[in-house]
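Handout, section 4.2: multi-component inputs.
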Amino acid sequence: MTDASTTLSAEALVARQKADHGFEQALYRDEAVYALERERLFSGRWLFVDHDSLIPEPGDYFVREFLGESILFVRGRDNEPRAFYNVCRHRGSRICDAQRGNTKTLVCPYHAWSYNLDGSLRRAPHMPEDFDPQAYGLVQCDLRTRHGLMFIRLGPERRDDFAEMMAPFEQVLDFYGSGSARVAAREVLPVRANWKLVIENNQECYHCQIGHPEFFATMSSEYVLAFGAGPDSGPPDAMREFEQRIATFEQKAQSLGHLTGSYVDPADSAYFRAWSRVPYRDGFVSLTEDGQPVAPLMGHAKDFDGGRTAITFDPFTIMIGSVDYACIINMMPKGPLETDTILTWLVDADAEEGRDYDLERLKWLFDVTIRQDGVLAERNQLGVDSEAYRPGMYSLHEAAAVRFHDWYLAQMRQQAPRLAKTS
Amino acid sequence: MTDASTTLSAEALVARQKADHGFEQALYRDEAVYALERERLFSGRWLFVDHDSLIPEPGDYFVREFLGESILFVRGRDNEPRAFYNVCRHRGSRICDAQRGNTKTLVCPYHAWSYNLDGSLRRAPHMPEDFDPQAYGLVQCDLRTRHGLMFIRLGPERRDDFAEMMAPFEQVLDFYGSGSARVAAREVLPVRANWKLVIENNQECYHCQIGHPEFFATMSSEYVLAFGAGPDSGPPDAMREFEQRIATFEQKAQSLGHLTGSYVDPADSAYFRAWSRVPYRDGFVSLTEDGQPVAPLMGHAKDFDGGRTAITFDPFTIMIGSVDYACIINMMPKGPLETDTILTWLVDADAEEGRDYDLERLKWLFDVTIRQDGVLAERNQLGVDSEAYRPGMYSLHEAAAVRFHDWYLAQMRQQAPRLAKTS
Amino acid sequence: MTDASTTLSAEALVARQKADHGFEQALYRDEAVYALERERLFSGRWLFVDHDSLIPEPGDYFVREFLGESILFVRGRDNEPRAFYNVCRHRGSRICDAQRGNTKTLVCPYHAWSYNLDGSLRRAPHMPEDFDPQAYGLVQCDLRTRHGLMFIRLGPERRDDFAEMMAPFEQVLDFYGSGSARVAAREVLPVRANWKLVIENNQECYHCQIGHPEFFATMSSEYVLAFGAGPDSGPPDAMREFEQRIATFEQKAQSLGHLTGSYVDPADSAYFRAWSRVPYRDGFVSLTEDGQPVAPLMGHAKDFDGGRTAITFDPFTIMIGSVDYACIINMMPKGPLETDTILTWLVDADAEEGRDYDLERLKWLFDVTIRQDGVLAERNQLGVDSEAYRPGMYSLHEAAAVRFHDWYLAQMRQQAPRLAKTS
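Output:
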């Protein structure tokens, strides 16, 4: 799977794809392509983990799987969160079975080797004289937190600089208040499809009217056509219709002192980032079934301004928020034909379930919409698996999916990864 | 699986097999052999689908899987049945989830691209100016119907000519009346065995006395020995005993004006076809538990003449019929170690369940017999998987299985497929 | 999996491993390594089967799976037990579905070929004139029985001599009385881990205090440290503490005329054999929850002498016994990532369940302990599967596991197998 000849063939495959068409079948199936993706796309890149309010106290920990690796996230006595591979340095046993908890030390259940919360080896009985405990700390991963959001960097390479990656989001996350939020709910939806089919689906709203009647009802039809997958995601002239609505919304938002505007990375960027604030359909102020508020205001919001905030951290992680709650949609491969879509709902840190919000009402829209997307992606994989599948032409309403293809091909064709300026 | 070196090795394996022995283990297991079989044996060959009474009206459709491909069969406004790969030309989504129904247009549930019943693209919104709708019709498969029986041809090659393939069956299907029949029932039995083990089992009656007591009771022991798997399937001198029974039967059948006789392709044919009309045991007139009629007469039959009709369209498809009902046994691989045996029972188009026949009584014999065959083939696979398995010598009672081996090896050793005279 | 290049690579992998460390990930995962193990480690070696009291009468048989092969064990009319591959010589069908029974002949359920209990072909109807029945007997495996224990030798090679292999166990099995025992219970525990992780776990007691509280309570802490995985399995100076206990036990045992002592193969032996008799914790006389007797005395034991008998036939088969019952722990791979741990409990042939022993009380210790070991091995595999896994250093308390590594590497590096002196 990773020998020279197969890697070459994955590279050759990547070399001949076109951005404005679907990719060839092999890109949605082959182990060799997936191995190359792990190396060129996922290794060394900052990947979203979760909100750091999950581990508020020293000794708090949780375990997550990333690209098949079990990672242990633990807050140290010095209040710093750290990430370690969940693997004992003695015989390689998995250390932590539990998904979440609090502990004073990390003790391997096999032979009781124990580690301090900073990963250093604390005790290993009966070792030979030449054993150097300092050389046997847990294998650590880079971890950074900003505005409450934790990001991990896996693998030997250190491609991206964290501050540089986060820079365009400073203003919007500060307004939005993710730093003073907490997790209200989390759900994992397994999808039997290649991760790129899941992301292509996420990067276009051409399917929204037929595929998402509930979501479609929350936004105006002008939005869906012009802006459904972010700035410039629709046909070239669709924006004209929507701009009038944006102008009205921005006037109201600015009168409240709220942030307005949008951001998209240039086409040749190594990142795939964007954010925007745009209005709902008339009469709606939150992403709920009746358009009415569901939870207390978050961050610097003064009132319900009739708009939503969307952030694309990378193709894998999208945050869509009303001013009263947000849903983070994280799409991560588990193999060439398996993807997990992980939903994390955020509310203000002081909001209390039952008193301040009803959880079912809060979860409703993304619960129903992302399940629909899972069905669409699985059906897409079934067709792509056919000998009759041929890469198709993309519509003008799938411009952001084409940009994702552009970005993917540029990253995959890049032999030597950029070095991070700082770690 | 399909690169030059592996294909060579599958070819080398095929080259050294002997017809009068079991094949080597690899032929019953390897992915590379199966890939070569798809190319040389299944691609470009007419394969039985179903009876066309399944889709009597324009817009009627059904979906079937062939060799891992989902195929959509639909009757057009012009009353012509057509077959399409169930794959949208836009992004490759599977189009049709349902197994059967009626529709005015074929609409992909992903982005609502719609197709006419003849496969042409009907509507695709927001496409760029240079998009040519005519180039984006559904991928079509060759489909032919004769005497009510539909056959499909998959893959890029067009090996066999349909009229040539069907010619020997004209007379017998006309007598039998499959053109004026309809489907009474259908069942799919998955078998965890290589398809050749399923077919070898189907091509000999050496196992019938021990393996099929119910079937054995419907036919004479002379039949089982001499004719159990068709003309010349038993020991050389076994026919003498059975010929007396045939003569008596033919006299009666001819007195009713019924068809008699048999047909077998010559040994060097690219086809593996046969048909025959032979008598049951004394006192039996139908393939039922008590030997008595179960349904109204079919086709040109004037009365119960005491004989059955058997047709081998190819090694994969056998039709065995009394004059009052028929069962089509279709054995198709789903992979090197998985085969589906599909049973389709036909009755006269005017026969009505409950009034004219009892379905359980009608299905009884093949339901019980083909399940027994599934167990035999699975047990055979378990043994063939052993390191102790060695290709064994075939008995004189397995002559048709040896002929199947001959035919298989001839087809598999043929590098360039014959071109069809007409499509 | 078995072509030259892959085998070479498995050999290269084996060549660079170190005995006193964990092996590299590939040794615990790869198909190619497993294929080489089957060839160099399992083929031609005597492997434990079961107690021969399972088939006391002529015609008694049972079926077992070894390394993926179904083997039929049957006692002949001459009272000799024999082992055959469960594969018919005609078309390769599995012959025997049942797990256990009594039969006069072995009849294949496909075409009724029948075999005598000595494996010779008895009847095969309708075969051609040149068919030689003598050449079509069942494929036989070497089988030997000694002191009631059956051992099988699979594969084309005949490496080990049975009498030579069993020689060190004559005295201890005679004392223990396995020859006059019978099977009280049998259990199969499937473990999702490479077989070497299961055996490494079995060859050290570094994990006993944390992993096996029930087992730990039956033995003294001096035992666990010095002797938990047999002679010289603990830190170099740990034996001094335990020797005092051994001396006291041996005095008592010898006063009863019981066997005492121990045996370990030298480091350069082609075998990995050992046995020992050592004391329980004070007050315990049997491996039961309360330390009290559970069943009648076995073999030559005159009284409960306060000690246990442990026998390592090879790394795959350990027998641990009180003087009133024994448990045989057999760990056999089913694939690179699957191992079956099979427990067989023996009691005296005359002991009767209910009257002489309570089965639950008898099974308790090993039932609970070996299940715990299964969890430990599966957790170990999960960690070894990580990209962060690195072979770790072994403690002084894992000396027997290191000796297992030494033995494994010596066997695996040996290109040409030793020839057995006699079969």
